[in-house]
Amino acid sequence: EEKDNEVFRRCRALLNKLTPEKFDKLADDLANPSFGIDSPHLLKGVILLIFDKALAEPNYCSL
């Protein structure tokens, strides 16, 4: 669970840095195996974080 929380914390930090100019690099960082998304549970959690961010900040939905 500690590892899960760390992955979710890093994902939130990455999403807070999201801009159109930084999208490609941040998407690559998130997709990199070293980011730590190595289970269906973590993948689902990250997807929910991204979805929640899109709902909270509709200006970035197109990204």
From TrEMBL:
* Alphabetical UniProt keywords: Initiation factor, Protein biosynthesis
- Residues forming the MIF4G domain are 9-62
Identify the InterPro entries for this entry: ARM-type_fold, MIF4G-like_typ-3
Task: Name the SUPFAM superfamilies for this protein.
Answer: ARM repeat
What Gene Ontology terms describe where this protein resides (cellular component)?
A: eukaryotic translation initiation factor 4F complex
Q: Which GO terms describe its molecular function?
A: mRNA binding; translation initiation factor activity
Which PANTHER family does this one have?
A: EUKARYOTIC TRANSLATION INITIATION FACTOR 4 GAMMA (PTHR23253), EUKARYOTIC TRANSLATION INITIATION FACTOR 4 GAMMA 2 (PTHR23253:SF9)
**Family to which the UniProt record says this protein belongs:** Belongs to the eukaryotic initiation factor 4G family.
Q: What is this protein called?
A: MIF4G domain-containing protein
Species, as recorded? Rotaria sordida
